Amino acid sequence: MLKSMTGYGKAQCLIGADKYLVEIRSVNGKNADISLKTQLIPREKEPEVRKYLSEKLGRGNIDLFITVERAAGPSSRKISREAVQAYLKQLQEAVDGTCLAASHPSEMLLAIMRLPDVTDVPSETLSESDWEILFATIRMAAEGLDEFRIREGVSLERDVLAQVDKIESYIPEVERYEAERVAAIRERIEARVRELALQPDANRLEQEMIFWLEKLDVNEEKVRLRQHCSYFRQTVESEPTPGRKLGFIAQEMGREINTLGSKANHAEIQKWVVKMKDELEKIKEQTLNIL
Questions:
Q1: Is residue 31 helix, strand or coil?
Q2: How far apart are CA 241 and CA 287, in angstroms?
Q3: Are residues 58 and 291 in contact, defined by beta-carbon separation less than 8 angstroms?
């Protein structure tokens, strides 16, 4: 079963009277790139969180957000007397001897209250039991993201296998024109000989014909392309995280399709080769998002 690297999960919990909301989102990436976009996780716990997310979610650009809704509301904000006194002293020194010196003290105080660090929400250190509750919520959000990835993976698997089936179904369409293609190549060579009024040895001419027809033979490319399609399906069915391998298989499929096109020498075959390339590009885009 395929999993997408794109996903979203959330969970919430109560710690005391405060509500914590954990959100995790991920998009495709080559490795596990984890960003903890919160200051609510104690620094000593960050390695534990990163290790868990890496093992649980594997590859992807993963962002974790935690927001908290304090039960105390605005009344929990505190005024820093030290900051107010420091700002007041600096302001008094700055306006001393100017017309601003006679300003009403309340106006100066209002100005100070707008400055940084005058009021703040006191930081609360999570106890070990509180941290266990928060970490359990992180795990719940990660589980939700993983379930989201599985649902997306079902759609991915259906689409990518349908595209592989289409590529394989185009091979018989190519084969319909092979006899015609060989006859056309032979006719072009013979016409060129007549145009040049040459009198080549018949056996030597036949040998050259065979040589060129073998160079343009596409049987090996067709066999390998079918094998790659089969291997792609087997990998989807048998491996839990096949994204990288499927990308490599798609590259090999592209090599065979490109060689088939370069050897085609036939307009109708080229049309089917273009259709193969179109489906292959869709596969490559999809594999970038497969875990």
A1: coil
A2: 11
A3: yes
